[in-house]
Amino acid sequence: MKKNILLYLSVTAIITICCSKHEVIPDPVVVETKGLKEVSPFPFGASLNISLLKSRVLYQNVIRKEFNSVTAENAMKIGSIHPSENTYYWDDADYLVTFAKSLNIRVHGHTLIWHNSLPSWVTGFQGDAAAWEDLFKTHIQTVVTHFKGSVTSWDVVNEAFNDDGTLRSTIWSQHLGNDYVARAFQYAHLADPDALLFYNEYGHEYSSAKRTAVNNMVADFKARGIPVHGLGLQMHTNQNQTDANLIEAISTAAQTGLKIHISELDISLNQANNQSLVLTDALSALQAAKYKVIVKTFAALPAAQRYGITTWNVGDADSWIRSTYNRPDWPLPFDDNYNRKPAYQGILDGLN
Ligand code: 9MR
Predict the structure, then answer these.
(1) Residue 73 designated active-site
(2) pLDDT tens digits, residue range 208-236?
(3) How many other β-carbons are positioned within 10 Å of the β-carbon of residue 46?
(4) pTM of the full predicted structure?
(5) Residue ranges of domains in the chain, CATH in brackets
(6) Is the CB of 320 under 6 A from ligand 1?
(7) Neighbour-count burial of 222, counting CB atoms closer than 10 A to its CB (0-12 exposed, 13-18 middle, 19+ buried)
(8) Separation in Å, CA 308 to CA 8, 107, 210
(9) Is residue 85 annotated as a catalytic residue, yes or no?
(10) Considering only CA atoms, which residue is closest to atom 3 of ligand 1?
(11) How far is the C-alpha of 239 from the C-alpha of 346, rounded, in Å?
(12) How many angstroms is it from 69 CA to the middle of ligand 1?
């Protein structure tokens, strides 16, 4: 509030100095546009990188202005938060929680169980079935308990299915059996009965087999009384994905009646890995159109099912896509300097 007043006063001062009394003085209010959190009827968020959050004022400012939900991009993964069997490293995740609390915004937890980002103490763990079960349960319950009351919701299990709809063979399925996904939800629920529990997955927009597998799992969980409250659709997609597929992904997930979280949204423009690609207006327009379709489809869901939309980090330079694929790409709604891109306008158009 104080900041707005200061901004208003300084803009007014500049206008007063610059404009003669015969000129029309523009309304200074237009200088301060709203953030996504103010124009969206559901929470709008981003995943955050903790070192950027600690060090970059521009990054902090855009988060403060735009978002009312945050996810740790990496800081709550087992490899980060549970680096050795008897050591938990809370500092980075706690930093995020404290930051979110200072803004009174939501924290979504990502992710309790995944086959990726595992520390070597887990990949090399020697133990019988009971010891594995204990490792699994202890990890889930220690992390959920630590953040009880601060983290509203969890991606309990991430990416348990293959694209063909079969259960992925992972260190977890191998040592715990195929029903480990259900037990992860039960353990998390026991640790924090108030937390909303999500199953998070990618590929709903290109694999009908995966969509079906996820919905079948939800039906099975409901029949057995396994606590599950939401589905996360990562939506790491690209400008060539068809609107029909994007719409199908969201509407099929919504048929479960669960809360839907577009949990890791980004729209790559360079799936071909073209090292000399440059960002053109035409590409930006295609991207904006895809952001619009996704947001518009999501916005049309029943309010109770709209858990929110989270982009996977904030500005193009922060995206995992550049570092992972080592290629030029511009997947996010903000550019390298946190200016709003046409993609941002696509989001606004989808909300209207
Ligand atoms: O963006 C994340 C990147 O920084 C990490 O190196 C990587 C491995 O932990 O995970 C990335 O995030 C992934 C997310 O946790 C799950 N869905 C796919 C995301 C992109 O790979």
Answers:
(1) no
(2) 999 999 999 999 999 999 999 999 999 99
(3) 28
(4) 0.92
(5) 34-351 (3.20.20.80)
(6) yes
(7) middle
(8) 31, 12, 22
(9) no
(10) 320
(11) 13
(12) 18
